[in-house]
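User: hey, got a sec? need DNA repair protein RecN folded
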Amino acid sequence: MLELLRIRNLALIDDLELEFAPGLNALTGETGAGKSFILRAVNFLTGDKLTPDMVRAGRDKAMVEALFVVEGVECVIRRELAADTGRSRLYVNDRLSSLETVESLKAGLVLHTSQHGQQKLLSPAYQSRMLDAFLPDKSLLGERDRLRDRLRAVAGQRKDLLDRVSSLSAQREFLDFQSREIAKVNPKPGEEDELTAKRQALKDRTGARQALDGALSLLHGQGGDGLLAQFDRLGRQVRGLVAAVPDLREEAQVLDDFRLRLGELDGRLRRCDLRAAAGDLEAVDARLFELAQLKRKLKRDLDGIVHLQQELRENLSFLDESGLDLKRLDKEEQELADALQAVLARLHADRRQAATGLKADLETELRQLGFSEHVRVEIDFEPHEIFPGISEERARVLWVPNPGQAPQPLDKIASGGELSRFLLALVGLLTQAEQPTLIFDEVDAGIGGLTLGTVAERLKALSRRQQIILITHWPQLAAKADRHFQVRKEVEAGQTYTRCGQLSEADIFEELSRMAGGGDQGQALARELLS
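Assistant: Yep! Here you go:
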């Protein structure tokens, strides 16, 4: 039950608080006063979208808050709409929540019918869902959806597999060619960089060997006439001069030391191993040339070729194994199709059983709403393909409002008033289990005369079972309310406001008189209704 509704800064509503009663609550007022905004606020609270322009001019945000009581447990839902971004935030019991959470609660909180609901009633898809609400085992619907979705997924995988096989099969010759060309060279990741570095190292080593040979040639010369031999002769000559020229003793010692250093250098140079087989550099150059040819042929860099090599292996392996995969998917698809057919057979049987009960209940409800004692409802079943080769029987409501007519669809013969009463009968049956708050938005459209009294009595009877919020322009319906609210539009200081307040007994009399046309005739009807 919806106990309390508060709306702030929504459209023309500044700050509005309504405390609803159990039973029947009526909202009345002139056309355009803003009754629909109140219901849009409830719908916004339970998941509908509102645009930022619905926030009252000059305000940062709009807020709708409601207190529901379900089986003695209170649930407070609040939703806010930002004027600048259009984003909304939703809170359940003061905790930030999601629309999915409210959607899961909605069925037990509010059921909103309207003139739009009448048009939905004409839809065969809606009529089929309506019948499903009366199924003895609703788990079959979930099992049907699960199997259907899984079957579609497997069929999708099978199609994707066939498409890929077809595409790769057309390229098989080219794939084999690329694979062979790569296999001949068999490149490795990073190989080109390693070979380039190795080539530079070998070239550096070759240059160093040439320098070593030149240094040793200078030290030894040809025929023993290198620096070593020359320093030996020079040292002997200088030492021969020392006896005659003592001042040369120090220079002779320097020459001896330098000769010793040259000897040490010669030993170290001889120990240097800078040998590099000429074939090493040639092999590296040959490998680099081979890789360059492969790159030109395949028009990719080496990393791309290595990646292509793996891709080719996978594609060729896929083509080789695709036959087994297709057989596996064919088998799975057939098993799912058989399981879905079995579930549908049970579902069809349950639907026909539910249709029998719904038909009888609807006929009873319609007779109570002023239809002929001869009114009949028929529920026909039409095949609807849900997967190639698999059809599901879906219900369509047919009726005969008058004797002597053949059953016809609702959209062919039902007037607005007849649809209104049909919707009222249907809602009364649909909500027997969860008993949410029922919101009737001008469901009495197209109804007049004595039928109004019948509809009013049915609404009143229904309100004894569960709470009803009724928007109406008919005094015959409003007079049945346990709590009556009037919606009105007021202008203050150049600003327009939508107001709504609970009416006292005297105010109710005045409002019913207005709704009845005013004057003596309106007052007379109001007295009669209230009596």
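Quick note: The radius of gyration is 48 Å. Let me know if you need anything else on DNA repair protein RecN.
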